């Protein structure tokens, strides 16, 4: 209970003292780095950003990223995510310090939509069922990033009852 946080074990090793010292230094640096990533660079309690010394300032169409004192303006992307589920892709983007200008989601599961609304509120624009999306609508949105991962239970080799593209639910009726 009274052990220090960054204490190396006192195992005997047949390696040279110089080698042992390098290993101890590397291990200590790794422990300190991992602790500082978790403590200093986390934008919220729910996710960890592993990009060192990153400051993001969103400003309209662009966001400014500062890395080690250098400033880089980058365009904030318009994102469309089809088969979005609980919007885990949005969590991944924000944890990578990519703050979308607009985030459109295509999802029909009511429970997933409730989770989206609870977590992100008005920051998400719901497009509805993917079968209702048309080329002209996507062209008007002009997404910089388009995510998608259709249900594949009828195609998955893990499913012993899979029907392939002839299945009545899942990927078959959506695309074939």
From TrEMBL:
GO terms for cellular component: nucleus. Its EC number is 2.1.1.37. Coiled coil: none annotated. This is DNA (cytosine-5-)-methyltransferase. It comes from Frankliniella fusca. It holds the Pfam family DNA_methylase. One of its GO terms (biological process) is methylation. It is an enzyme of class 2 (transferase). Keywords: Methyltransferase, S-adenosyl-L-methionine, Transferase. Residues 1-14 have a biased composition (Basic residues). GO terms for molecular function: DNA (cytosine-5-)-methyltransferase activity. InterPro entries: C5-Methyltransferase, C5_DNA_meth_AS, C5_MeTfrase, SAM-dependent_MTases_sf. It comes from the Eukaryota. Residues 1-23 are annotated as: Disordered.
């Amino acid at each position: 209970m009274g052990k220090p946080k960054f204490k190396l074990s006192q195992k005997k090793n047949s390696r040279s003292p110089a080698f042992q010292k390098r290993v101890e230094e590397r291990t200590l640096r790794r422990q300190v780095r991992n602790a500082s990533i978790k403590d200093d660079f986390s934008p919220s309690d729910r996710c960890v950003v592993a990009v060192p010394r990153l400051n993001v300032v969103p400003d309209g169409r662009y966001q400014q990223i500062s890395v080690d004192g250098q400033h880089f303006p980058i365009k904030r992307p318009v994102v469309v995510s089809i088969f979005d589920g609980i919007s885990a892709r949005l969590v991944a983007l924000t944890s990578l310090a990519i703050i979308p200008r607009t985030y459109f989601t295509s999802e029909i599961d009511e429970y997933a939509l409730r989770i989206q609304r609870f977590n992100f509120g008005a920051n998400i624009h719901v497009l509805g069922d993917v079968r209702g999306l048309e080329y002209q609508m996507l062209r008007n949105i002009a997404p910089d990033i388009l995510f998608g991962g259709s249900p594949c239970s009828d195609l998955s080799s893990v499913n012993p009852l899979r029907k392939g593209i002839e299945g009545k639910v899942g990927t078959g009726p959506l695309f074939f």
